[in-house]
Amino acid sequence: PISNGAVAVIDSKGKFLEVHDCPTYNIGKNGSKKVRVDVSGFSGVLTNIKDAYGPEIFLIMEEPVVMPKQGVVSQGVFMFGAGLIEGCIATLKIPYDKRKANEWKKVILRGLSAKSTKEKKEISVQLARRLFPDTVPILTLKKHHGRAEAILLAEYARRMFVALTDHLKEEKVA
Predict the structure, then answer these.
(1) Phi/psi zone of residue 31: left (φ > 0), alpha (ψ -120 to 50 degrees), beta?
(2) Do 21 and 162 touch, CB atoms closer than 8 A?
(3) Least buried of 64, 104, 106, 138, by fewest C-beta within 10 Å?
(4) What's the pTM?
């Protein structure tokens, strides 16, 4: 869910720079807890990143996909939240692309297997900590799998960008 999501920043050389949990707020009556995206807070996070790293940034987000057993209301809320996030990105004129989870995870998690969703989350945290040792202090809880996946998705984008840049350089030389 979007409430577990995060935004990670990695430079073109593969150095981890920062990660932010997706800003959210709770709504609900009679003790129910419903989480929604804090659009203003998310926009602020992206603005700060854009200001810190300049116009050369590129953003990749996971393609939102609803699950077959989700209720219609849950699907609507999820897709609405994803649309709000994409709207923030577009409004701030940050170039971006989307990738399906199975597409980027096939590349990043190659050779690692997990049977359950819980194991997949644990593998994501372990891999992010191994690839980026600076993240060990901020990937300490089970709920930090969203941060880990944001870091790994950023690494996927970096690898794809480097591969494309190298390919274009080779074409220029030929």
Answers:
(1) left
(2) no
(3) 106
(4) 0.87
